[in-house]
Specification:
This protein is an alpha/beta fold. It contains 12 helices and 9 strands. The strands form 2 sheets. The protein has a 6-stranded mixed beta sheet. It has a 3-stranded mixed beta sheet with strand order 7-8-9.
């Protein structure tokens, strides 16, 4: 498959889904996958498309095809990918833009593993933001290589690139990796100087000196919300005129089970040290509606925490099971906030040696 076909196939992902909904061939609550997954699907063969599109997303979406309003001729919609070195606040920024937590956030590098779409709605347009793994140079592994490739692939088939930087940190090798990747981008680029709430950002001037390379420069704080609406309006102005890509009350393409698994993984990153978080994965096997002993609604979540080897498994369980209980309690509280009801989290810790690489 040549690059042009790959790019076109990836870029029509959510647009194709919107057209399928309008034609009555897909449900509006069906979540199209990120452009990366559909691009990989194209390599595997078109017969892989339907199983992926059949995944359900019920987080922030109760719309049907009939309640998606037809936009006027000036309505703008498109994809804006967030790129940058690790730990510049891309995931925090996306959560702030959407107004809800759809991405996990930790101080550790490479927390984000999969591109996630977050949808921002305005009367005049719709932005589908794509969060990506950060570029990170000081930790070499197959995982890091895969994350870098995912970030680069997410640049294909989008309308605007939002380059998020942290002006409180010197421009380093990871920033240079991002700048190099952006050289091949022909779409408009927006420079987003994050952490405007910090009193000292000594490298803001160095970034602003590069403003000729960007269509616009915005100062924002994902923490306080400063400048977010100006950033939103600036990106909307760069998007093509066209119909919305998602129903007006859907805010992410991420499936419920994926979001629940991510909340567990976030707690592993926050509560475990060294290599353990990078050698773990989470699988959510089932999510069932039940009643508790008092007859109140309860969500039963069955999850498996996978570790690369028995030593990491023991560390995740902890003495007397205290560490896994701590992880489970913290994750359960976030799940209850996400789902709006009581959660019973049933979690096992198993070994999967495929995570050792």
């Amino acid at each position: 498959m040549n690059r042009s076909w790959f790019t076109v196939f990836a870029s029509v992902n959510v647009r194709l889904h919107a057209q399928l909904v309008a034609a009555g061939l897909a449900r509006s609550e069906t979540a199209p996958p990120p452009p990366l997954r559909l691009g990989i699907c194209a390599k595997l063969g078109c017969r892989q498309l339907l199983p992926i599109l059949e995944g359900m997303s019920d987080i922030g979406s109760e719309a049907t095809a009939s309640n998606t309003a037809a936009p006027d001729s000036q309505f703008r919609a498109g994809l804006a990918v967030l790129v940058g070195r690790t730990n510049v606040g891309k995931s925090t920024l996306l959560n702030a833009l959407v107004g809800r937590k759809i991405c996990i956030v930790t101080p550790k590098p490479q927390t984000t593993r999969d591109p996630i779409q977050g949808v921002v709605h305005r009367p005049e347009g719709q932005i589908v933001f794509v969060d990506t793994p950060g570029f990170f140079k000081t930790h070499a592994s197959r995982l890091v290589d895969r994350l870098h490739e995912r970030a680069r692939q997410a640049l294909k088939g989008i309308d605007v690139v939002v380059h998020v930087v942290d002006p409180s940190r010197a421009i380093g090798p990871e920033d240079e990796m991002v700048l190099e990747a952006l050289q091949a981008v022909t779409q408009p680029r927006v420079l987003c100087l994050n952490k405007a709430d910090l009193p000292d950002r000594p490298y803001a001037g160095a970034w602003k000196a590069r403003q000729a390379e960007y269509a616009a420069v915005h100062e924002v704080s994902a923490y306080t919300g400063q400048g977010l609406e100006a950033l939103t309006q600036g990106i909307l102005a760069l998007l093509p005129v066209g119909p919305p890509l998602y129903p007006e009350d859907q805010i992410t393409n991420a499936h419920r089970n994926f979001l629940l698994a991510e909340l567990i993984r976030e707690k592993v990153y926050l509560l475990m040290d060294d290599e353990v978080p990078y050698r773990t994965a989470v699988e959510v096997g089932s999510v069932q509606e039940r009643l508790d002993k008092q007859g109140q609604p309860l969500v039963h979540v069955k999850a498996t925490l996978l570790a690369a080897n028995p030593r990491y498994q023991r560390m995740l369980i902890g003495a007397g099971g205290r560490r896994i209980a701590q992880i489970g309690k913290a994750a359960r509280q976030e799940m209850e906030a996400l789902l709006g009801r009581k959660v019973f989290l049933d979690m096992d810790v198993m070994v999967d040696r495929r995570l050792a690489g």
